[in-house]
Here is the input.
Amino acid sequence: MTAPVELRNVTRRYGDTVALDGVDLELGEGTLTGLLGPNGAGKSTLVNLLSGLRRPSSGTVRLFGGDPVDAATRVAVGTTPQETGLPETLRVGEVLSFVSGHFPDPVPPGELLDRFGLTGLEKRQTGGLSGGQKRRLAVALAFAGRPRLVLLDEPTTGLDVEGRHALWAAVREFHAGGGTVLLTTHYLDEIEHLAQRVVVVADGRIRADGDVATVRGVVRRSRVTLHAETLPELDGVVLAERDGDRWTLHTPDADALVRELVLSGAVFRDLGVAQASLEEAFLSLTGTTTGATEEAAS
Here is the structure.
């Protein structure tokens, strides 16, 4: 079976700027993949290539074996870009009817309204919607044509907690029915709740590719937390963060660090050990920082 998404040695340049640099990526049928990366990493460029809005400078991009620029290929794809311009004078129901009219077997508008928490807003002009309601409508439109693949670029930006959870439920339902999803987001908990696979992009290149546990494992780092007035100098601490008497020590070998801590005779309490979070893995892989104060344990 032809993969829904195939990128082979894809490079995209904007003048002297290289947005994507030799990217290879394949998404299998029925998968849910999260695409992570800092601003300017190339995430939106990749989505635009798959949406047929841009062509690669070199390499090949395929949707279900076809060219994304071909409208017949894109009929099986639903997209929510980062920025969605809705006609402010059209009513919600009119927008849904207009978009649905481009597909041979669209989802009934009432079903979409219910699924995305927009019931009762059919006659409201889109210009009178809140930011969150506009975003939910934009995401709903991606599912109007019963797509096999949806491309969601920062879909929950501007949504409150309830709105985010409703969208998560809709994405899970689509995926459970065999749909393929590519999701870009800055919300790391979104990836942890939804994605089977995580692809980390930085400087136009793929830095890591695997499940959440695999991406965490790339940094091979754990967090040791404890309360202490002072700590001696400890080997194996790659980063120490302090907030009052609470310490967070980052280390590649938590067992060795705890043994050293006990043998040092230091007075401490409330010791805890945890794996690196997806956020820490992401920051390490992309070379960005949290902005937290870094102190040497001493």
